[in-house]
User: Which sequence fits this backbone?
């Protein structure tokens, strides 16, 4: 059985758990004690030399990085539904995975890290970036239910956690009604699961 090395309060771990649930795929969840820096232990660093979570093990395959894990799970278990094989459609979905690890990470995710986990970072910059990316996504969703292809894909799963957790970074979603509707759409997917802090 696959193993996911996991931290419950991590949005990046959650997006993997969420996709596993939506795909109805069994996976052993292995908790990592970040309070005691287990992710920096020699045994864990053999799985991921960067000392980050999540990590997915599937037989001989070990994957780090939540976006890469989403791609693997989508293609292995989701057919073309969650990540199409057609180059143009694949690229449309994939661009949002890069948005998740760039603009969303440096915006809502950093803001959450600052307030929830007392990380010392430029909170004004994180809020500026949050406003910029949330404004863009809100416009994107003005006339559509999903980010791409008129259905839920890993584009939505990749971007969802840290936007839905924006309140933990003292970011209000009140100015972004289309984003709020999109969050509701995701929560209504069959087999949706939540995580700590998700309203």
Assistant:
């Amino acid at each position: 059985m696959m193993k996911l090395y996991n931290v419950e309060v991590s949005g990046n771990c959650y997006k993997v758990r969420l996709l596993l649930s939506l795909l109805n795929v069994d996976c052993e969840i292995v908790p990592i004690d970040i309070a005691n820096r287990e992710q920096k232990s020699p045994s864990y660093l053999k799985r991921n030399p960067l000392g980050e979570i999540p990590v997915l093990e599937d037989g001989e395959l070990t994957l780090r990085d939540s976006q890469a894990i989403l791609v693997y799970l989508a293609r292995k278990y989701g057919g073309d539904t969650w990540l199409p094989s057609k180059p143009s459609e694949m690229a449309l979905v994939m661009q949002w995975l890069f948005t998740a690890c760039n603009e969303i990470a440096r915006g809502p995710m950093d803001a959450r890290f600052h307030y929830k986990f007392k990380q010392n970072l430029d909170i004004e910059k994180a809020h500026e970036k949050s406003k910029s990316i949330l404004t863009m996504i809100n416009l994107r969703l003005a006339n559509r239910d999903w980010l791409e292809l008129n259905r839920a894909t890993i584009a939505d799963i990749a971007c969802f956690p840290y936007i839905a957790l924006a309140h933990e970074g003292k970011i209000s979603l009140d100015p972004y009604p289309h984003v709020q509707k999109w969050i509701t759409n995701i929560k209504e997917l069959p087999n949706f699961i939540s995580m700590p802090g998700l309203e």
